[in-house]
Design a protein that fits this description.
305 residues; alpha+beta; Immunoglobulin-like; 2 domains; four-stranded mixed beta sheet; 4 helices; elongated
């Protein structure tokens, strides 16, 4: 007779990324090395400025932003990315104050006002999203997450850049351009992403009762979670059955968004957990990844894998 045991985890898959120890900031990304340069002059040029004089001011502002913007492309750690974002936000606020002190001709006033507004939006977003971005960088990598920040910065400033271009004015030449976002490939529900080792007669039915996609790793005894016997992908609210499992094993699972097929990981909003118990060999088990009264399976957060 087949043995079935209903299991459900006692917590939701909504926690932050796994508790990976903090890494030391990479050289070149500390606040002391990314100090905000002062504007060329603290006293605004007498106005109203015509197009030529205003372009000169925009060029100076580009120079102020060059170093902090470049730092985004050089980060190597989650902490370094967060610090680079905060430093760039300070720079944007600095040039915003500079712009607010300028007076321009009526022909330029609309673009001038929009530029100030969009710089403020970009600075606020960088400041408010620094912590979450740091968490995403721990699971998706600092370089990938930095590129997302760079694209968002250009999106925040785009309307102002377009209006300036219509006036034959240039701004933002020092801003990094990582190109378009890579196309996301989301596996189908139940796709087996990894299968290695000998086959057995064990069976596991998994139900994902959460609102996030999940990658389940069936890991043989003594093996790290990054070397599973089987890894299966479950979409939100989906379910699947894995057959031919060999030996006793542990269950690890990670959830999130923006699946990276090359590295088999989520790039944002990620969590990493494992079931505390070991699953016996050659048995059939059923697991429900949804909190439920009377649940009898404890889980623990683990480092990113």
């Amino acid at each position: 007779m087949k043995r079935w045991l209903a299991l459900c985890i006692g917590v939701c898959l909504v926690a932050g990324c796994g508790g990976k120890p903090e890494a030391a900031p990479s050289p070149g990304t500390s606040a002391s090395n990314s100090a905000v340069p002062a504007p060329a002059s603290s006293v605004p040029t007498a106005g109203p400025l015509d197009a030529a004089a205003y372009q000169a001011e925009l060029t100076r502002i580009d120079q102020v932003l060059a170093g902090p913007a470049r730092a985004l492309t050089r980060v190597r750690t989650a902490e370094g990315l967060s610090e680079a974002m905060s430093t760039l936000a300070v720079s944007l606020n600095t040039v915003g104050i500079r712009l607010a002190a300028l007076t321009v001709t009526s022909r330029l006033s609309g673009a001038h006002a929009l530029l100030q507004e969009r710089i403020g939006v970009a600075a606020t977003r960088l400041t408010s999203s620094a912590q979450k971005t740091e968490e995403d960088a721990r699971c998706g990598g600092a370089a990938h997450t930095s590129q997302k920040v760079q694209r968002q910065l250009r999106t925040d400033l785009d309307a102002a850049l377009v209006q300036l271009q219509r006036l034959r004015l240039t701004f933002g030449k020092t801003l990094p351009d990582p190109g378009p976002a890579p196309e996301q490939t989301r596996p189908d529900n139940g796709d087996v992403l990894v299968r290695r080792g000998a086959n057995g007669i064990g069976r596991l039915k998994i139900t994902n009762g959460t609102s996030k996609d999940v990658a389940i790793s069936i890991v043989g005894g003594g093996q790290p979670p990054g070397s599973p016997q089987v890894m299966v992908y479950l979409r939100a609210t989906g379910s699947a059955t894995v057959n031919r499992i060999s030996g006793a094993y542990r269950l690890y699972f990670k959830s999130g968004t923006d699946w990276d097929a090359d590295h088999r990981r989520f790039l944002a909003d990620c969590t990493f957990k494992k079931f505390d118990q070991t699953f016996g060999k050659n048995q059939a088990w059923q697991v429900n990844l949804q909190p439920r009264p009377g649940g009898n399976a404890d889980t623990t957060e683990v480092e990113a894998y």
